[in-house]
Design a protein that fits this description.
33% strand; zinc ion binding; 3 domains; Neutral Protease, domain 2; alpha+beta; 463 residues; zinc; 27% helix; 11 helices; eight-stranded mixed β-sheet; Immunoglobulin-like; 22 strands; Aminopeptidase N
């Protein structure tokens, strides 16, 4: 406490300026699992909208060096890196101003393959005979941990494309969002390989994913020709068959329901041995806790199959609602999750009518929020988010279960035909862009000729 009794306050969280916008990342990652370390380099294509002598972006738990920018005319400037550890940002300062135009920012970086199940982290598993413990590595970037893997504009409305390259030991699988473009031996070390992946669609940083480890897989194609795999630890691939069959039914259902083609050539799912979430909807490479994806075909119950089908349906829904069209900021994350939690039941009911899944919605979803919503500590479904760290504190059964329940109510209120039409128009207009909740309400109102915004705001903005 200071002598004059004034209290220090933390500076308010500020989002990154929109005066510098990334459009593309060329990213190379070199994981060394023996040392739990990785190194990498990234070239970020930028649009500078106003003259500036500094570039601010996110980086956390990384050693970043050798910053330089290159202009469209190939002029090169070296920058000095200033670290803001508390703000998880770096500022690259230049002696001369960058004028309006296009640039490439090049950075080298290194970090730990951590054990905290966020960023780029390690996961432990044993060989099939149980005799030896080994490690792989995987990513978990939502909401704001991409910055722990490489320097980036780690906010959902800074969308860009990504060319990802993984340099790994030859005996390991290297997997990412997109199909493999090329795989070659490392020129100066034949025990290592270089795996390059196709360019991603325009997407948010939290949806980037890559995994390195020893994996088996089962594979198929859905009725629209999308390649699908379920990756498991070696010796468990038959445990992924039900999830694969489920995804092959549900992905075409969504493509038909939204009337929008799935935009990537593959839709992979992978079971990770150490995983903090239930699952994560990374575009083209959905990661799961093992118990949320894998089923022993000899001992599975109906309840287990239903649970896996629901989780798979939830994550596949996000491939459109969340990935193709993304919330502008985390305040609207409730809509992403509430929508997926509602439509997972619709999809499973259509693809597995024998489950009679809607009879479980009230007990498993609707009833979950009734007790917390009756307490003084309750809150509206939609709560403003400042710092991304607030998400875990705010998002609970009210946000997810009550959110999905009001989406179900809205669907019944305007009818399925109007709902599908409005949803299609919304997803079409905002493909590869960012939105706020009111954008969806507007399209559903136009399709149904009903006062959707007025009705829904009364449910989402008050207790």
């Amino acid at each position: 406490m200071s002598d004059n009794n004034t209290q220090e306050t933390k500076p308010l969280f500020q989002r990154l300026s929109q005066t510098i916008v990334p459009t593309h990342y060329d990213l190379t990652i070199r994981p060394c699992l023996d040392k739990f370390r990785f190194s990498g380099d990234v070239n970020i294509h930028l649009k500078v909208k106003e003259p500036t002598s500094s570039i601010v972006l996110y980086a956390a738990d990384l050693e970043v060096d050798n910053a330089k920018v290159k202009s469209a005319s190939n002029d090169e400037l070296h920058g000095k890196i200033e670290l803001d550890q508390e703000g998880e940002r770096i500022t690259v300062n230049f002696d001369h101003k960058l004028e309006k135009g296009e640039y490439e920012l090049a950075l080298n970086f290194a970090g730990e393959i951590n054990n905290r199940m966020r960023g780029f982290y390690r996961n432990k598993y044993t060989t099939p005979d149980g005799s030896e413990a080994r490690f792989g590595a995987s990513t978990q970037f939502e909401p704001a941990d991409c910055r722990r893997a490489f320097p980036c504009w780690d906010e959902p409305n800074f969308k860009a494309t990504f060319d990802i390259t993984l340099v790994t030991q030859k005996n390991l699988c290297a997997i990412s969002n997109m199909p493999i473009k090329s795989e070659n031996e490392l020129t100066d070390d034949k025990e290592w390989k270089v795996t390059k992946f196709d360019r991603t669609p325009i997407m948010s940083t939290y949806l980037v994913a890559y995994v390195v480890g020893e994996y088996d897989y089962v594979e198929t194609k859905d009725s629209n020709g999308v390649s699908m795999r379920v990756y498991t630890l070696v010796g468990k691939k038959e445990h992924g068959q039900f999830a694969l069959d489920t995804a092959a039914k549900i992905l075409p259902f969504y493509a038909d329901y939204f009337n929008i083609k799935y935009p990537i050539a593959k839709a992979d799912q992978i079971a990770i041995s150490d995983f903090a979430m239930g699952a994560m909807e990374n575009w083209g490479l959905i990661t799961y806790r093992e118990t949320a994806l894998l089923i022993d075909p000899k001992f599975s119950s109906m309840d287990t199959r239903q649970r896996v089908a629901i989780v798979v349906a939830h994550e596949l829904a996000h491939q459109w609602f969340g990935n193709l069209v993304t919330m502008d900021w985390w305040t609207d994350l409730w809509l992403n999750e509430g929508f997926a939690t509602w439509i997972e039941y619709l999809a499973v009911d259509k693809c597995f009518p024998e489950f009679d899944i809607w009879t479980q919605f009230v007990a498993d979803t609707f009833a979950r929020f009734l007790v917390p919503d009756a307490l003084k500590s309750s809150h509206p479904i939609e709560v403003p988010i400042g710092h991304p760290a607030e998400i875990d504190e705010i998002f609970d059964a009210i946000s997810y279960s009550k959110g999905s329940s009001v989406i179900r109510m809205l669907h019944d209120y305007i009818g399925d035909d109007a709902f599908r039409k409005g949803l299609h128009n919304y997803l079409t207009e905002y493909s590869y862009k960012n939105t706020v909740t009111e954008n969806l309400w507007s399209h559903l109102a136009k399709a149904s000729n009903k006062p959707v915004n007025e009705v829904m705001s009364s449910w989402t903005l008050q207790m």
